[in-house]
Design brief:
This protein is 34% helix and 16% strand. It is of the alpha/beta class. The strands form six sheets. Strands 1, 2, 5, 6, 7, 10, 11, 20, 21 and 22 form a ten-stranded mixed sheet that branches. Strands 13-14-16-15 form a four-stranded antiparallel sheet. The chain has a two-stranded antiparallel sheet with strand order 3-4. The two termini are 14 Å apart. InterPro entries: Alkaline_phosphatase_core_sf (IPR017850), Alkaline_phosphatase_prok (IPR026263), Phosphodiest/P_Trfase (IPR002591). Pfam families: Phosphodiest. This is Alkaline phosphatase family protein.
């Protein structure tokens, strides 16, 4: 149980008064590391330098037991939760993909045909390995599918037009979700090798972007390789460079060095994103943005969100327990230090509120778990129709494939038209199909949406997480939860070493680190939730929380009443 709401509210009001009495910092820097499990800072701490994570640990509050509380721990879901302070049931981003019943196609979360890219070609399907990107039916992008305000929006509302708001990422969904509706988002186009945006934000690129492109940052990686950055014996996984479950992506391989190839290789920019280079390029662009837009240069707070995606891509290909993941962490620490050093030079870290978290964690590969005696497996949804229970359903209901319209992880969508035409009760069909799914090896729960609507689901940690994910307009008819340590490993022919998206702890556990003026260093071990992040930023600044916010401010990261210093004790 969480702290009594009334007591927490009273404490929050007292702290809010103290926060407002303190001058707002000129810059809020929100960093989101994609697929960054909460234990990795401690696990790979031997690689920390002085200026990256170490700065945040030494000067801020480390919430070491933070979790997402929604069931579907995918990129857009976690990013938007961090941005809005609420559950996907309310902010609406229930999955990277959901099925559009009207159009009869899958729907990519931030796609929007009304706002095409500005002077850019969009996704190159022949070279794009992200299956969610390939599923988009338009190259247009916007944040309009986010149903509530974000903390970036609230900063713009509270401080007015003088407040500058930006989001930057390799991934469009990483930049757009964090920039919100009021900001400007830039993301990396792999098809063009540069950062782009859409007409939702601007009609033409500012001159500084052309200047950044002219520097040749991206082209500078041509003909180079991702080399191991230290001697193998200094790594936990220094003798495990070639594990059989790692993805052997053509031209990249599963052992060091990993070649990026030449600039004319159609996979050149993709390979950059599959390595620490993706984060290095993102931070280089963000530094130019800070300078060109003059962030943090006056008394009105500005907001910059930087989403770093390389950990996610490296994790998918090699798994979190790999030499590649470990070296990527070491390089991420140096890249973070590079960004913070630039902020310190231009604005001052003592005048910047820094918030770092992650959109989700990651599971271990079943092959690695097997070496430790832990049973695990991968699931193939294509084989469901051949299972005896579903063969029986075909005989009972007609043709099973006609009843099951689509599976977009984690939701199964039923053919409502076919069900109605046959005079079947949809809720009963959901129940029968869910019962058969739960009989299959690897599936822990199959929860019908009709039961969620009617409040007929037994309450528990997993059921509550599924309910937090349920949006009646976008969620499917049955939510599928795989057994612990099980996941779908094949994505349109690309077999991956790790795939997140479950409500289990390895996917829900993420770090939260907050440093800034008036915040005393602490390590907090009590369980907190990612819905608390956006309200914490808002209260710190004296702004109102986002419109759908459900979280409570993290009091350890706010100025304490009376002395202007943050609490330094952990519960």
């Amino acid at each position: 149980m969480r702290t009594s709401y009334c007591a927490a509210l009273l404490g929050t009001l007292q702290i809010a008064v103290a926060a407002q009495a303190q001058e707002a910092p000129p810059l809020v820097l929100q960093i989101t590391v994609d697929q960054f499990r909460g234990d990795l800072i401690d696990r790979y701490g031997r690689h920390l330098g002085d200026g990256g994570f170490r700065y945040l640990l030494d000067h801020g509050v480390h919430f070491a037991n933070a979790h997402h509380r929604h069931a579907n721990t995918e990129t857009i879901v976690g990013h938007t939760t961090l941005a809005t302070g609420t559950d996907p049931a309310i902010h609406g981003m229930v999955a990277n993909l959901w099925f559009d019943r009207v159009a009869g196609t899958q729907f990519y979360n931030v796609q929007d045909p009304d706002f095409p890219l500005v002077g850019a070609a969009g996704v190159d399907a022949s070279a794009e390995i992200d299956p969610t990107q390939r599923a988009a039916t338009t190259d247009g992008r916007s944040p309009r599918n986010i149903l509530t305000s974000t903390v970036a929006d609230e900063i713009a509302l509270h401080f007015g037009p003088a407040s500058k708001v930006f989001g930057v990422s390799v991934k469009d969904r990483g930049a757009i979700s964090m920039a919100g509706h009021a900001g400007t988002a830039y993301w990396f186009s792999k098809s063009e090798g540069r950062f782009v945006s859409s007409t939702f934000y601007l009609d033409a690129y500012p001159e500084w972007i052309a200047e950044w492109e002219a520097k040749g940052t991206v082209a500078g990686y041509a003909g180079q390789s991702w080399e191991l950055s230290a001697a193998p014996e200094t790594y936990m996984f220094g003798t495990s460079d070639d594990q059989p479950w790692e993805t052997d992506f053509p031209g990249f391989g599963r052992t060091f060095p990993h070649a990026w190839g030449e600039a004319d290789n159609r996979y050149f920019t993709t390979l950059l994103t599959l390595s620490p280079a993706g984060d290095e390029i993102t931070v280089d662009f963000a530094k130019s943005l800070i300078d060109a837009e003059g962030l943090g240069q006056d008394a009105v707070p500005d907001f910059l969100a930087v989403s770093l995606s390389s950990t996610d891509y490296v994790g998918h290909l090699f798994g979190p327990s790999s030499l590649e993941a470990e070296d990527n962490f070491a390089r991420l620490d140096r890249t973070l230090a590079n960004l913070l050093a630039h902020v310190d030079e231009r604005v001052g870290l003592d005048r910047t509120l820094i918030v770092l978290s992650a959109d989700h964690g990651a599971p271990e590969h079943p092959g690695y778990l097997a070496t430790l005696g832990i049973e695990a497996g991968t699931f193939d949804f294509e084989r469901v129709d051949t299972e005896p229970g579903f063969v029986r359903l075909r005989a009972e209901f007609g043709e099973s494939r006609d009843l099951i319209l689509n599976y977009s992880n984690p939701y199964l969508y039923l053919n409502t038209a076919a069900i109605a035409a046959r005079g079947l009760d949809k809720a009963e069909v959901e129940r029968v199909v869910a019962d058969e799914l739960e009989k299959l090896p690897g599936i822990a729960y199959a929860i019908p949406s009709s039961a969620l609507r009617e409040g007929a689901v037994a309450r528990g940690k997993i059921q509550d997480a599924v309910l937090a994910n349920f949006n009646p307009d976008r969620s499917g008819d049955i939510y599928v939860v795989f057994d612990p340590h099980w996941f779908i490993a094949d994505f349109d022919g690309l077999t991956v070493a790790s795939a997140h998206g479950s409500p289990w702890t390895y996917d829900s556990h993420v770090p939260i680190l907050i440093a800034g003026p008036g915040i005393a260093p602490a390590r907090v071990s009590r369980r907190v939730e990612t819905v608390d992040v956006a309200p914490t930023i808002a209260v710190y600044l004296g702004a109102k929380p986002p419109s759908g916010a459900l979280g409570l401010p993290l009091t350890e990261a706010l100025p304490a009443p009376g002395d202007g210093a943050a609490k330094a004790t952990a519960e």
